[in-house]
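Late entry, evening session. Most of the bench is empty. Finally got around to the prediction I had been postponing all week. Sequence below, unchanged from the version circulated by S.P.
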Amino acid sequence: MSLNWQFTDKARFKKLTKEEKEQNDCFVWAALFLDIRDITEKNATEWVWRWTFGNKLNGPYFYRMKDGVAGEPFVPTLAEVKKRIGFTTNVSTRTRRQFIDKAVRIFNETQRFEKQWAEEAAKECDCPSDKDGIKWHAEGCKAAQPELPLE
């Protein structure tokens, strides 16, 4: 199924700056993982709460971009969310409890995967261990988690 979105309040959309319009992609994708269909006066604070909670639990969803380079994590303020009242998608809205359960499940799965990955990588590693058996990975070691480019 495709992810569809639109602004029902065209006048409000036209008032957004060029930068704010570019951030709309973040809101489209955020609706999907925040499990909220649209932005209304009633649920604007819920958008900010879920976005903040998700970022703190699982790391940043999006970064503010400047000249194609990722900067600080993007978590919209309540004012930024309210500028988009009338934004709607075809995403199913779930309760806060359902959202929290999903976010925690993702966190647990990520932790399990990272542990498994580290254990497998450590088997292939010939870096020295200290007196307690803890490996200290040299630069370039396969077991050291690589930095991924944000481009």
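Two things to note before I forget:
The chain has a mean pLDDT of 83.
The radius of gyration is 20 Å.
Will write this up properly tomorrow.
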